[in-house]
Amino acid sequence: MEKRALLEAFGDRISLPSLPEVVLRITAAIDDPAIGVAEMGRIASEDPAVTARVLRLANSGFYGLSEPVTSAERAVTVIGARALRNVAMQCSIVRHYEHLRAIPDFDLDELWRHLTLTAQLAQSIAVAAHPRTRLNADDLYACGLLHDVGKVVILDSRTDEYLECIRIARRTAAQLHDAERRVFGFSHVEVGAMLAVQWQLPEKVAQAIEFHHGPTHAIHEYPHVGVIALADQLAYRAGSETFDSAVLKLSHVAERCLGIGPQTFVALAERVRGADVEALG
Ligand SMILES: [Fe+2]
Ligand SMILES: [Fe+2]
């Protein structure tokens, strides 16, 4: 859908959270070659939640450092500017929507867990697909992190109607995005894509969010959309009885669209078989 048409469709019914100050500053720093990582580290160190998470990430097994990192500045040089932006987005979103925890019929932690797992998977799939696609793994992490964030945006603006959507989807065994479209005329994919545009993220991020539930040709045609669709499905199936059959089916897509061999894909999927990922907060 055209961006303008989308905005008109939302009208004043949905309010998108504005670009958080910390994300704005990091994005400006990424775009300005005169600003180095040390300055970005200083931006990170002004926010305790961002600092804590940046340190945790830099010291995680993913980077395999021999010496622990103790300053935000050093941590940012380890993880890089785009990963810092992801951390800042993650912290900002969690903070902004914390009040939704009070809604009894909505499991906020479950959504945060799904977003974290999808983001991690998207990053790993992007790395595996890199020889063919040259995708930036940090940008794909951002796609994973935001792909379903439209759900909380709509829930926050239209709480009762959104809870009804969830009930309709459960009752009729419909996909949630189909139920959303029936009730609102749009779904979390368009809302999430608009958020990515508003937050000045790369165009690919908005595209991947908009098409993660299809159409199929977009998933097959655009590698960044394919990565998110695969990561979303894997994250969704992790811990379920249908995991093995889903992995088998998805490995064909991974090979055809992203050039990832079946063995690599199965090994990657195996890491999340019974995944119990920490929640975003
Ligand atoms: Fe979704
Ligand atoms: Fe999802």
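^ fe (ii) ion complex. The pocket of fe (ii) ion (ligand 1) is lined by residues 147-148, 177, 188, 212-213 (CB under 6 Å). The two ends are 32 Å apart (CA to CA).
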